[in-house]
Specification:
Layout: E1 16-17, E2 33-39, E3 45-51, H1 54-64, E4 71-77, H2 82-96, H3 107-111, E5 114-115, H4 122-129, H5 133-157, H6 168-171, E6 175-176
Antiparallel strand pairs: 1-4, 2-3, 2-4, 5-6
């Protein structure tokens, strides 16, 4: 927990394993407000962000970018304070010396629902375009399920045991986001 006056340098914080030996994310972060930094397997900074529930945010990032989520550093606070959170986030980004991909070119991938439609082959696109509205919804659900299965395969290979559930309504639009 940080003091309200001094920002702890990112380099001073301990690395926390993104997935523990039981296959779960750091449960101590459930319901915690704060700033977090995500690192890849080589401990290279990928993203700095803040959240009202760090655990849920980490889970979202894991399904969106599973090969980039190996380590995390966290600074929590008691009460929401956007100015404070943004100040810590800005300080950590400046300390890093470069904007990590998750805060730059890959910002959308890290922070928005997964668009399964971009994985459609030309043949699937043609079939989709020639379908009626009801068939389009079913088609998009199937594409989303395929991408969901691919994500689950990657998470399983990482040893993830945490419950992951995608919002079924968004699948009808070809999107994947946690429920």
């Amino acid at each position: 927990m940080r003091s309200e006056t001094k920002i702890t340098a990112l380099a001073e914080l301990e690395f926390i394993s993104y997935i523990d030996e039981t296959g779960n994310l750091p449960e101590s972060l459930q319901g915690k407000i704060g700033v977090y930094a995500i690192f890849d397997d080589r401990k290279i900074l990928q993203l700095v962000n803040y959240s009202r529930d760090i655990y849920i945010s980490l889970k979202q990032h894991l399904v969106r970018k599973p090969q980039s989520c190996y380590w995390v550093k966290v600074e929590t606070i008691e009460r929401p304070n956007r100015t404070l959170l943004e100040g810590v986030r800005k300080a950590w980004l400046e300390e890093n010396g470069a904007i990590p991909a998750g805060n730059g070119i890959d910002e959308g991938i890290w922070n928005h629902p997964i668009d399964a439609k971009v994985t459609m082959t030309d043949e699937e696109k043609a079939k989709y375009e020639s379908s009626d509205d009801l068939s389009k919804v079913k088609f998009l659900k199937n594409i989303a399920r395929r991408v969901e299965d691919e994500i689950f395969d990657v998470l399983e290979s990482r040893g993830v045991k945490a419950e992951i559930r995608f919002n079924p309504k968004l699948k009808e639009q070809g999107l994947l986001d946690l429920k």
